[in-house]
Amino acid sequence: MILIAKGGTTAAGSKILKASKVKLIKDLDTVKKKSSKKSKTSKKKSGEKSNLQVEEDFLDEIPKSDLIEKGMNLVKTREPESIKVTKVKDYEEAFDVKGFSSTADLLIVYRTIEKNPVGVKEIRKFQSYLEEHENVAAGIIVPDKFTTAAKRDGQKAKITLISLKEEKETAISPEIEYLTERLIRGAIEILKYRGYKILPEKNKAYDPLRAGSEKLGKYIIAEESSEKTLVLVPQDEVVRVATVRTMKEQMDHLGISSGILIPIKRFTYTADRECQLSGIVPLRKNHPVFNIFNNGLVPEHVILDKKATREVLKKFHSKIHQIPKIFDRDPAVSMLGAKEGDLLEIRRGIDSKSYRIVIPTPGVDRVETDED
Prior knowledge:
The chain folds into four domains: 2-42, no CATH class; 66-169, Trna Endonuclease, Chain: A, domain 1; 174-282, RNA polymerase, Rpb5, N-terminal domain (Dna-directed Rna Polymerases I, Ii, And Iii 27 Kd Polypeptide, Chain: A, domain 1, 3-Layer(aba) Sandwich); 296-359, RPB5-like RNA polymerase subunit (Eukaryotic RPB6 RNA polymerase subunit). The protein is 35% helix and 23% strand. It has helices at 11-19, 28-46, 66-76, 120-130, 148-156, 164-169, 174-193, 207-210, 241-254, 269-278, 306-316, 331-336, and strands at 2-4, 23-25, 82-87, 94-100, 106-113, 137-142, 160-163, 197-198, 217-224, 227-234, 238-239, 258-261, 266-267, 280-282, 300-304, 325-327, 343-347, 353-359. The protein has a five-stranded mixed β-sheet with strand order 3-4-5-6-7, with helices on both faces. Strand 17 and strand 18 form a beta hairpin.
């Protein structure tokens, strides 16, 4: 008798199985090899194809294909314990590239389909396969294009759709890649200064983002106590309102209430306004995306809590509206993440302190045309 248990068993369980003369198999490849031997024997006897198949018939030799290579690279981003490739039934040229954890759980799967165009039928067939696997990041890679209906269904099912042809046509220039990486490094500096912990990319918190948002841009998830913040550097040089709304949907899906959006170049007017309505802080082009307090010429700014604010007002016998002002678009305010009504203490030396109350920037002109 054979028992197949992908997670293995305990030491006590091993003793019981040994006493009962039950063999434990953890690796499905062992079953595959046995199945292969039986299949060959059957062919020799009858000269016909055997119907004996296993659920996961992994390929020993991976076909050479740009689609499969792309799938392998995407699966590697999840840092799986192992990567396997299987041929999809009922297709001449379709393969599944799968990444597995150390406990043989499926983490991510990308299906490659050599067909043009790929329609709704292929999307729904892949979707029915995914129903057997919960919380698995998934995508489909094709050489050319998807139909409009396929794109719609793929978006609803949160399946990433990748066209190699479209990727080549919209390839990001080395300059934009450099700017994006620089902005990401700067965002990490700002978040760490605020006391946030940056979650590594393999953290499960990123899973919902990988299930359909890779094309939007680079993400960071930062955590302070039990609160999380989502940071996005979009691929598009100009951030439009659609990007802001998509980011807001991701925040709602993740249960995150605050976000930071950093454009490579600028926001449109409506995108800027949408950020304010969505609880997303837009770091505009005049904001330095790095830790400005590392510069010796910039004095330390600290946000005071309510108790400290009351003490300052009492000390100077002042009302809150009598305190000197600082605009909410000031780089130091953005660096701290301070909000309207917060009192800042500016420390220029051991005994030199001054105070500023954060207020909205007045008379912000509409300098950019809405091209949404």
